[in-house]
Specification:
single chain, globular
Length: 323
């Protein structure tokens, strides 16, 4: 593997600011992002990528390639939580296994954005409709995870379970709602809308992403101590499963003829794990699951692994497969 890809990725300003955030916690600096600000940054990023995706989708049209990509995204979003659940059941109870499986079946929008930035740095094109794949992959894992809990919990009759609440959290949580809404507005307004909003959605994008990753570095470093509770099994899982999921994603991408840039983004979506939408849903619907397990593995292990090593590694796999 060309190690210059990893070096190039690490020397990307947003990644360096992620490290700066981690270092701030490790050296006990008083650096802190005020509480409402990270939420605003994440909403900006979702609005920008959703809007751009909608504009790009209307440009490309709904072709056979677009349909195949979106179907593949849905299939992976449903399949990943199922097979990871049975792996996790080897060591964990049903509640924790289902919550972690749902976390890894869903996606991380920030990892996706970082991969897009990586492709831009290398001058590799990708299609904006991949944002639609991102939106489709966020919610199904929540539903699958809850179905698994119901199927494998012996005393399920003792649990209060509300499907309306579950569906509302899965499809109307702020992340999904804003992402899909921005995508639709991008489709409706097209090139004209893009020109109007470009200074906001494009001009500020990398600065906001950098600030957001600084905050993510702070949060990830604070979660490191929780890894003591997860043990070797879950730490290994948090590194190996993304590699397996990315490998499956690349094979599917090759099979349906995705171009290289799209293939990398698809692999990253398959390999990433949610640390916002799914934990929020699991806390509401599966309170028996331990949040320190599914949040710390996704945020303190899988997220930094993907943005530092995973993304260049997946591109290396693409270069091998697409020769």
């Amino acid at each position: 593997m060309d190690t210059s890809l990893i070096v190039s990725n690490i020397l990307n300003p947003p990644i360096l600011f992620f490290f700066l955030g981690m270092i701030a916690v490790l050296v006990k600096s008083d650096l802190e992002i005020p509480a409402p600000f990270p939420k605003l940054l994440s909403l900006y990023l979702l609005l920008s990528i959703g809007f751009k995706g909608g504009v790009e989708l209307i440009k490309s049209g709904v072709t056979q390639q677009v349909v195949l990509t979106l179907v593949a995204a849905m299939l992976m979003a449903c399949a990943v939580p199922i097979y990871t659940f049975f792996i996790l059941k080897l060591k964990l109870d049903t509640y924790d296994a289902a919550a972690i499986a749902a976390t890894y079946g869903s996606i991380s929008a920030v990892t996706f954005i970082t991969a897009g930035s990586f492709l831009n740095e290398l001058g590799i094109d990708y299609d904006g409709y991949m944002v639609a794949a991102l939106a489709l992959m966020e919610s199904p894992a929540i539903i699958v995870g809850l179905i698994l809990v119901n199927l494998f919990t012996a005393n399920q009759g003792d649990r209060e379970f509300s499907w309306p609440e579950v569906l509302q959290e899965a499809f109307l949580n702020s992340s999904v709602f804003l992402l899909v809404g921005s995508l639709i507005i991008g489709v409706l307004t097209g090139e004209h809308g893009w020109k109007v909003l470009e200074p906001f959605t494009q001009g500020l994008f990398y600065g906001i992403l950098t600030f957001f990753l600084l905050d993510m570095g702070l949060v990830a470093a604070r979660r490191i101590k929780d890894l003591q509770k997860t043990g070797v099994f879950l730490i290994s899982f948090a590194i190996l499963i993304p590699l397996i999921n990315a490998g499956i994603g690349l094979l599917i991408a090759k099979l349906i003829g995705m171009p290289q840039g799209n293939a990398l983004l698809f692999a990253v979506l398959c390999a990433s794990a949610s640390y916002i939408a799914v934990p929020a849903a699991m806390r509401l619907t599966v309170p028996e699951a331990n949040p320190s397990l599914y949040v710390s593995t996704a945020l303190a292990v899988t997220f930094p692994f993907n943005i530092i090593v995973g993304i260049p590694l997946y591109l290396y796999g693409i270069n091998m497969l697409w020769r």
